[in-house]
Amino acid sequence: MSGFDVNKIRQDFPILAEKIRGKDLVYLDNAATCQKPQAVIDSIVQLYSHDYANIHRGVHTLSVRSTDKFEAARSKVKSFINAASDKEIIFVRGATEAINLVAQTYGKANIKAGDEILITAMEHHSNIVPWQMLCEQTGAVLKVAPMNHKGELIYSEFEQLLGDKTKLVSVVHMSNALGTINPVKKIIAAAHAKGIPVLLDGAQAIPHMTVDVQELDCDFYVFSGHKLYGPSGIGVLYGKQSLLEAMPPYQGGGDMIRKVTFEETEYNTLPYKFEAGTPAIADVIALGAAIDYLVAIGMENIAAYEAELLDYATAKAKQIEGLTIIGEAEEKGAILSFTLNKIHPHDIGTMLDSLGIAIRAGHHCAMPVMDFYGVPATARASFAMYNTKQEIDVLMAGIQSLIEVFG
Amino acid sequence: MFEDLRDLYQEVIFDHNRNPRNFRVMENADRQVEGFNPLCGDRLTLFLKMDGDVITDASFQGSGCAISTASVSLMTEIVKGKTEAEAEELFTKFHEMTTGKEEHINLEALGKLAVLAGVREYPARVKCATLAWHTLDAALKNEANAISTE
Fold first, then answer.
1. Largest CB tally within 10 Å, which of A32, A94, A165, A166?
2. ipTM for this prediction
3. Is B4 close to A21, i.e. CB distance below 8 A?
4. pLDDT reading at A2 higher than 90
């Protein structure tokens, strides 16, 4: 790994020096949200201290500065996911809003009663509920491609569900509850062979791997800034330009218009057509700073290091008697979901917290996944590039001790 | 290793979690209510046998964390033989104890339930302890629908 130095990276994240209940913080809830590097924090302070004004409006110096930085961040996102144009990068509040936007614009314009929308059994609620709402509005039908017990999509069944009625495929790139990485290139090729567009929910995938939307050939790709080491409340909808051009606007308001009279309104061009109102200016710019930071480290290096962490954690977890790993896909990102015999995940979460270890305990906004495994909840340790093998040792020792305490 | 948690996870709680009391389906129950905590997935069914306004038997089924299991287990023990009014009064006191609104709570009046006083330091876990009691409250008010802590 060329020059990947986890200790140096840790220095860039001030919160990692925090003590929790007197113990060193071991932050393993990265699938819920990632901590922020100093560069991101500084970017927000810099903007509000020196450069802040509203964008796309004023002729004054600060407005120009803010606008330039804002649009530079858009270009950074474009390069980061290798979109063809800045016009294809729409800033929204997060992956959830991006999916709702596609459902309520593309969906309403193109999906009718009796049509089908195809998702998978491992989706986050944010890639289920917007489609259920659309189905209720239009009379379309939501179809769910099943998974096997390892947490892998059963591809043959997925393919069978791709039919004449399927008008959209919306699939998670990497599962937040299981870690499964779906065979998205294959999925997209199969859907495109039948003329069906594909949306990828990349909220969980984006911090862990190189994403190239042109190589994938996906029609939409959505993600949130806060899981990519950037601020919360900001996210991205990527869409192919031709699709975005044809879609009706989402919300009406300022910035998304070219000309307004009381009789009619002429909408702005892309990407502004979908960006009504003053956006989260500082947060967009800080997302750009997060991308700069990640590009300097290299997504390939991050992916390789995290794969090492996951292998290490999986091997250690398998040595613990009574621990069951939930999600054992062959293609898997740095997430370890597990249950312990007779110990509820919330007890695990509280007990580990007393040792300074932050994990997630619950249904991970994926209740259908919990139902599939017949558990009310799981405990989940999710790793980021700043985690270490020593932290995994602390986690495993904590799990061992709490098993003993519960008896 | 878990010294900080001694107030929360007392031995009585571990005991009731390992061996929940009155953990059974009640045939011919007079009242039967479901309790659900959607946040953590804790789910229980509470059964009551009534003689007039006296609770003559209480039992439960379900699954949850140690705090919620111990809480419902302890509750089914303590409410047996109590009148509806007495049970409601216990609920009020229990609620005050777990939410920490009262400075000077008479823990003695709560008997064994006092082992759950520690949850007030853990806001994320208060609902685990109170689910049982909200379910009981619904059962006493004869609300047929499932109750939820959300």
1. A94
2. 0.87
3. yes
4. no
